[in-house]
Specification:
By secondary structure, the protein is an alpha/beta fold. Helices cover 45% and strands 12% of the residues. It contains 13 helices and eight strands. Strands 1-2-3-4-5-6-7-8 form an eight-stranded parallel beta barrel, surrounded by five helices. The N and C termini lie far apart (41 Å). GO terms for molecular function: 4-hydroxy-tetrahydrodipicolinate synthase activity. This is 4-hydroxy-tetrahydrodipicolinate synthase. Its EC number is 4.3.3.7.
């Protein structure tokens, strides 16, 4: 069910920080038209850290409504409190999401046993399909392959988003767990290599601005066509880098603003992209063949 280019979609906001429902509808139609294979709502890129519980659940429900069953929806429901993660995961299931993405608990730095029990407890509490999410660069905890191997035996844990950026790690996960769970790239710069090694897709930031290209590249990589995948990925390589010049989702939200798809709204403590990084983002968008809208490029 979950494969290919899965966009970690931004949460569009008005200038006052409130959720921009009109822009959300526009983004959803953009992704469906351009071939995105699944939508991941309210993950890191969706500013989950600054949405309160009610907003978080409301955004998931709204995405489900807007998509209307046309492509799968994966809801970000991770938290560093196991009970809160259970509550969010139940909320996503009740809203009609197809699966949940659960980041490793951040800041409190659990042990490997703590990680295993955290995920097992959520999986036992809520039967919806669940995807693990390991991104040690943001959470200060690394879920090791031994722990993932143990979790792969739980029936409704169906995949892992590996955002370590390590191809060796990705290959190890595929070798150890590939028959029991899917392995997805979580780092756009290395996603093609991971899919060519047997990964089932990518949960992508770049797909926010280049959905058709990411879909086609992922399709080629997942069928093992290295030549076609490399040709499709080459124009995106600068974009993969530029969208992380400041903390995600700062650059990608500004890029979408430059494209005329959303307003500049973003919530503190994140701020609008610094002036010094705007030209590199513009250049990367141009290299990928992405057009700017109106005079947004002059801001």
């Amino acid at each position: 069910m979950f494969h290919g280019s899965m966009v970690a979609i931004v949460t569009p906001m008005n200038l006052d920080g409130s959720v921009d429902d009109e822009a959300f509808a526009r983004l959803i139609e953009f992704h469906i038209r351009e071939g995105t294979d699944a939508i991941v709502a309210v993950g890191t890129t969706g500013e989950s850290a600054t949405l309160d519980m009610d907003e978080h659940c409301a955004v998931i429900a709204r995405v489900v409504e807007l998509v209307g069953g046309r492509i799968p929806i994966i809801a970000g429901t991770g938290a560093n409190s196991t009970s809160e993660a259970i509550e969010l995961t139940r909320c996503a299931q009740n809203a009609g999401a197809d699966a949940c993405l659960l980041v490793t608990p951040y800041y409190n730095k659990p042990t490997q046993e703590g990680l295993y029990r955290h995920y097992r407890t959520i999986a036992e509490a809520v039967p919806i399909p669940q995807i693990l999410y390991n991104v040690p660069g943001r959470t200060a905890v690394d879920m090791l392959p031994d722990t993932v191997d143990r979790l792969a035996d739980i029936a409704n844990i169906v995949g892992i988003k590996d955002a370590t950026g390590s191809i060796d790690r990705g290959r190890e996960l595929i070798a150890r767990c590939g028959g029991r769970m899917n392995v997805y790239g979580g780092d756009d710069a290395t996603a093609m290599a991971l899919m060519l090694a047997g990964g089932e897709g990518v949960i992508s930031v770049t797909a926010n601005v280049a959905p058709r290209a990411m879909h086609e590249m992922s399709e080629a990589a997942c069928r093992g066509d290295a030549v076609a995948a490399a040709a499709l990925n080459a124009p995106l390589e600068a974009l993969h880098r530029a969208l992380f010049l400041e903390s995600n989702p700062i650059p990608v939200k500004w890029a979408l603003f430059a494209m005329g798809l959303i307003q500049e709204g973003i919530r503190l403590p994140l701020t609008v992209l610094s002036e010094q990084y705007r030209e590199p983002v513009r250049a990367a968008l141009a290299q990928a063949g992405i057009a700017f809208a109106g005079d947004a490029v002059n801001v």
